[in-house]
Design brief:
Keywords: Oxidoreductase. This is Short chain dehydrogenase. It comes from Streptomyces shenzhenensis. The protein has helices spanning 20-31, 65-79, 102-128, 152-171, 191-195, 198-205, 216-227, 257-266, and strands at 11-15, 35-40, 49-50, 53-54, 56-59, 84-87, 134-141, 176-183, 238-241. The protein is an alpha/beta fold. The protein has a single domain (11-266), classed as NAD(P)-binding Rossmann-like Domain (Rossmann fold). The strands form 2 sheets. Strands 5-2-1-6-7-8-9 form a 7-stranded parallel beta sheet, with helices on both faces. Helix 1 links the parallel strand 1 and strand 2. The protein is globular and about 60 Å long.
Length: 267
C-alpha cells in the first residue's frame, strides 16, 4: 500500500485470522506495526506475518462465549490493552434452505452473528476503560442487503450484524467506535470452491464493475482505515468494499450492454 498508517503499540484482535480474508486483515495490521492476536479452531501452518513479526495464535471456538471470554481476558492481561477487534470469523457452505437441518441453520447463525456478539461483549469493558477507547470492525457481506439464495441464513445473520453495528455505535459512543466492512467477492485460496475453475471465476469477476475480485489485503486496508485516527468521527457506518457491487441483471439484455461493459472495464 502506498500510504501506510502507523499502528505501533496498538493491540488488534482478528477472529478467524488464520487464512483467507482474516489472514489478509492480520497482515495489514502487522505491516502497520500493530501487535496482532488471531484465533481459530485450527492452528495455521504459517501464521500471518509481516516485517519479521508474526501474529500470535490462540485456539478458540468463537461460538463458545466462555472460550471468547478467556481469550479476551488473556490478551488484555498480557498486553494491558485492546485497541481494535475485527470480527472476521464467518461463512457458510451452499445449502438449500428448505432441506437444511435446524442444526445447520443454528450453526450458521452462531458463527456469523452470535460469535461477534460474544466478542463485542468481552472487549467493550477493556476498551471503555482505556483513555483513548477502542474500535470494533465487523466483517459483513453484500449478502446482507441483497438476496442470498443458497446462503439465506448467512445473509440474514450478516444483516443482523449490520443492525448490531448501528446499535452498538450509539450505545457505546463516544469512547468505542463500531463500524462494519461489507465484503463483495474476494479472491481467497478457497474461492474456487464457490466460483469454479479459472474460466468460471473470470466470468464471475466480469459481473463486478471493476472487473476483479477484491484481495484480502483490500479488506484489511478498509479495516485499518476505520481503526485509525482518519476515521475518528466515523461510527455506525457500513463501508462497502465490493468493486462497485454487481451489474444489474437487466443490463445483460439491453442492446448496448456489451458496449457499456467494455467501456467500463477499459477505464
Amino acid at each position: 500500500m502506498p500510504l501506510q498508517l502507523d499502528m505501533t503499540g496498538r493491540v488488534v484482535l482478528v477472529t478467524g485470522g488464520t487464512r483467507g480474508v482474516g489472514a489478509g486483515i492480520a497482515a495489514v495490521f502487522l505491516r502497520a506495526g500493530a501487535r496482532v492476536e488471531i484465533c481459530g479452531r485450527t492452528a495455521p501452518r504459517d501464521a500471518p506475518a509481516a516485517d519479521g513479526t508474526a501474529a500470535r495464535f490462540s485456539r478458540v471456538d468463537v461460538r463458545d462465549p466462555d472460550e471468547v471470554a478467556r481469550w479476551v481476558a488473556d490478551t488484555a492481561a498480557r498486553h494491558g490493552r485492546i485497541d481494535v477487534a475485527v470480527n472476521n470469523a464467518g461463512g457458510a457452505p451452499f445449502a438449500d434452505f428448505a432441506t437444511a437441518s435446524p442444526r445447520f441453520h443454528r450453526k450458521v447463525t452462531d458463527l456469523n452473528f452470535l460469535a461477534p456478539v460474544f466478542v463485542c461483549r468481552e472487549v467493550f469493558p477493556v476498551m471503555d476503560g482505556q483513555d483513548d477507547g477502542g474500535t470494533v470492525v465487523n466483517i459483513t457481506s453484500i449478502g446482507a442487503r441483497r438476496p442470498s439464495p443458497g446462503t439465506a441464513v448467512y445473509g440474514a445473520a450478516k444483516a443482523a450484524l449490520e443492525s448490531l453495528t448501528a446499535s452498538l455505535a450509539v450505545e457505546w459512543a463516544p469512547r468505542v467506535r463500531v463500524n462494519a466492512v461489507s465484503c463483495g467477492l474476494v479472491a481467497t485460496p478457497g474461492a474456487t470452491d464457490h466460483y469454479g475453475d479459472a474460466e468460471q471465476t473470470a466470468r464471475v469477476a466480469a459481473t463486478i464493475p471493476r472487473g476483479v475480485f477484491a484481495r484480502p489485503a483490500d479488506i484489511g486496508a478498509a479495516c485499518l482505515m476505520l481503526a485509525s485516527p482518519l476515521a475518528a468521527h466515523i461510527t455506525g457506518a457500513v463501508l462497502n468494499v465490493d468493486g462497485g457491487g454487481e451489474w444489474p441483471a437487466f443490463l445483460h439484455h439491453t442492446p448496448n450492454a456489451e458496449a457499456l461493459r467494455a467501456h467500463t472495464h477499459e477505464r
